[in-house]
Design brief:
Layout: H1 18-46, H2 50-73, H3 77-98, H4 103-144, H5 154-211, H6 222-239, E1 243-250, H7 253-260, H8 262-279, E2 285-290, E3 293-299, H9 303-318, E4 321-323, E5 329-331, E6 334-340, H10 347-363, E7 369-372, H11 374-378
Parallel strand pairs: 6-7
Antiparallel strand pairs: 1-3, 1-6, 2-3, 4-5
Helix pairs in contact: 1-2, 1-3, 1-4, 1-5, 2-3, 3-4, 4-5, 7-8, 8-9
Length: 379
């Protein structure tokens, strides 16, 4: 009879319990194949009837393949295989009675079945197995009648030795393979969890980034810039590193909207945002403060040091051309007010001073940078 285990289908197509059915297949073949020696020796001593021999041989050599086939064809291999184990337990109750309670083969068969049940289903399946033993013994008593010859002959002892040596080894190999499989699955689950955590973190960061951005320009929004200003002020108090702030206002922006439409106005805002991003250093931050007004934070810079970067932004904006839907070329300029933080002043006081500097730039003719240094602010 061919005892080769059928090739498994793809993992994703296997229902729950398929692995259990396949893991039980080899121990059942070995256990019943070698157990046939033990049972045969016991039946021989008990002078069993021929039909009992036939049932024993069919069960020991055909049942493993039948059980696997039933489990793999079942919609729930896990449940079916547990039932198959109870069939084994039922048979385990039949053979001691059929062997007239021959001690050694009876104990070996019952112990092997107990190990199987406990290893597969714990105490619950073990208890069900005991009930199946009793049911099998009751049926056997009805069929073959009571007979009690517990003595084990030397020949029976010898025929039980292969089972005694091999079955625990086979069961150990199966349990070792199971532990390796469980370890692999654990590693896969840990890896899947790590990937899921990383994906969730990436989504959280993406949502946070989206929430901190102005929808039209893609620059930071006012709330995020306010948070950055508060962080810069706190860092200045701790480390003494100063920072500068610039308020940038698009010149004659209302005129652009009134004469060219809000769509062109939006294009101008986006064009400014593009130039602002290109003009910033890696540590600088720029955001939309409101309407056509923007704010720039220059960490670690005085107003005088930041003026060069602000003027570079002004020049880039002045050289920018926006094409209207009518095909006209439109240029625009900005007025920039620049100042630096003077501890322990508040963020509101800092921004208010940059706003005053920006209005000075407008009153002086626009398209320029006006700097309020510490000396000028205190004057």
């Amino acid at each position: 009879m061919d005892t080769t285990e059928p090739a498994p289908p793809p993992a994703e197509a296997q229902p729950r319990g398929t692995g259990l059915a396949r893991r039980t297949y080899l121990p059942r073949i070995v256990g019943l194949g070698i157990g046939a020696l033990c049972a045969g020796a016991g039946l021989y001593q008990a002078d069993a009837r021929p039909w009992v021999w036939c049932v024993m041989l069919v069960y020991c050599f055909a049942w493993p393949h039948i059980a696997l086939h039933i489990s793999l064809r079942s919609a729930s291999p896990y449940t079916t295989e547990r039932r198959n184990l109870l069939v084994d337990s039922f048979a385990g109750g039949v053979w001691p009675v059929a062997m007239a309670f021959n001690v050694l083969p009876s104990v070996l068969l019952l112990a092997a079945l107990a190990m199987n049940n406990f290893a597969t289903g714990g105490a619950r399946l073990f208890r069900k197995g005991l009930l199946a033993h009793l049911a099998g013994a009751a049926v056997a008593l009805l069929l073959v009648g009571p007979k009690f010859v517990p003595q084990t002959s030397f020949l029976t002892v010898l025929l039980c030795v292969p089972f005694l040596l091999s079955y625990p080894l086979v069961l150990g190999v199966v349990m070792y393979r199971l532990s390796i499989e469980l370890s692999r699955r654990k590693d896969e689950l840990v890896l899947e969890k790590r990937r899921a955590d990383e994906a969730n973190l990436a989504r959280t960061r993406a949502l946070a980034e989206l929430a901190s951005r102005d929808e039209l320009t893609g620059l930071f929004n006012r709330r995020h810039m306010s948070d950055l200003l508060a962080q810069q002020r706190l860092g200045c108090q701790r480390s003494g590193d100063g920072f500068a702030v610039a308020l940038v206002d698009l010149d004659h922006f209302k005129h652009i909207n009134d004469n060219h439409g809000h769509a062109v106005g939006d294009s101008v805002l986006r064009a400014f945002a593009e130039q602002a991003g290109a003009a910033m250093r890696g540590t600088d931050n720029v955001g939309r403060w409101g309407g056509e007004e923007f704010i720039v934070i220059y960490p670690g810079s005085t107003a005088h040091e930041a003026a060069q970067g602000a003027d570079r932004l002004r020049e880039r904006v002045a050289a920018t051309v926006v094409t209207t839907p009518a095909g006209r070329s439109l240029t625009f300029t900005v007025s920039i007010g620049l100042t630096e933080h003077m501890p322990p002043e508040s963020v509101d006081a800092l921004v208010e001073r940059a706003d005053r500097a920006m209005y000075q730039a407008k009153s002086q003719g626009r398209n320029r940078v006006v700097t309020l240094s510490k000396a000028k602010a205190r004057a």
